[in-house]
Amino acid sequence: MLGSNTSYVASGLASLGISSFTGYSSSSVPEIVPQNTFQLSDTLSYTRGAHALKFGFSAVHNQFGFFQLGNASGSLNYSGTYTNNPASPSGSGHPWADFLLGLPGSSSKASLPQGVPYLSYTEYGSFAQDQWRTTPRLTVTLGVRYDLITPPTERDNRQSDFIPGSGGIAIAGQNGVPSGILDTRKHDFSPRVGLAYRIGDKTVVRAAYGLFFFNEQGTGGSARLFISYPFAQAYAVSCTQTVPCLTTKDGIPNTLSASNSNLPSIIYIPTANETSNMQQWNFTLERQLKQSLVVRGSYVGTRGNHLFIAMDEDVAFPGPGPVPARRPYPAYASISAWEPVGISTYHSLQLSAEKRMSKGLAFTAGYTFSKSMDEGGGGNSASAESRNNIQNPRNVRSAYGLSDFNYAHRLTTSVIYDLPFGHGRLSTSARRTVWSTRWPEAGS
User: Fold this and answer.
1) Res. 259: pLDDT tops 80
2) Nearest Cα to 13, choosing from 4, 21, 22?
3) Domains in the chain and their CATH numbers?
4) Contact by Cβ (8 Å): 153, 120
């Protein structure tokens, strides 16, 4: 059989690697993530005099099972090892012949030996806002929001976290470790303020600032405590060049071998569990040039703090000798970390002009000159993303630079023009032509 029954949800066809031939990859299949979401929210609005008050509350409770592993169905690899000429073994074998004989040279597989985890967490939020028209020309908006996000808990405590320094493993529900392992942040208050001031009849000045917290502990990705050792394990077997130890008929062994490739892989998320947040601010000057034409100029900026970044906490120290011996924790195959240590900044000048329909013409045009910087694109969901984008986890700030999505210049236009055809014109029917243009973006 071309597979392995190491899990009742992953007994499908294994990936096949045949050197010099196009094989078959099962990738992360199967992927099973059933999810239930329960949400309660309400908003109250109250107007009194010059004040427009709003109050709100929301609670979102998420429950989800999680089976999403790389190489869940396993892999078998054929390299021609067992059809070599003993008198001249180097390159004389044929991988396709090994495949026909059913003699793979190696196999690997990821598994959840204690079953599929089932988790839950809750997000609470509340806010209060006052839009105060202090004078006929000035409007002030003041608000505050509070967020509380609980860490995911697994119904059978099947979660673990790496302990830096000692190199140990914290197991949920054991030795005083809470079921969620991570701390619950209880101080996430975020202020909001906005101003709008009218100068004369044709000019408006606007300014605003806000702090926004958001949850990066979702259901996707690889760096999750509920798919960490010992609750998630990798099985790998490599045979010698002379004695086969695997067969296609028997499939992938459901046991660990003594090879170094079976060192445990662990996940690390700091227990302090800082909440990712984004500060946003802007200043806008708007001027009406004609009855149908308005132009705007804005400065817009943002700063992200405690952004989660994927990195390898077991990077070897520079120096001579074998790499494994220079790793801080050689007892592990890998330590995949998901840490809220990233920062980002964005600054931009945004110019726009908007003409409402008059004399058969309407258009919108916008130009943005901007610069975005961060320490890496992050990413913890799609398998195709490059997650470990920090070369030196001991100096994260050294990775600070232009974002991979940075575009210094962006120009967009949209035009609507009524052709001079139709009643009272040159034709019997009116037609409207629309042009919409987005010029190529240039980075720097």
Assistant:
1) no
2) 4
3) 33-66+112-229+264-360+374-402 (2.40.170.20)
4) yes
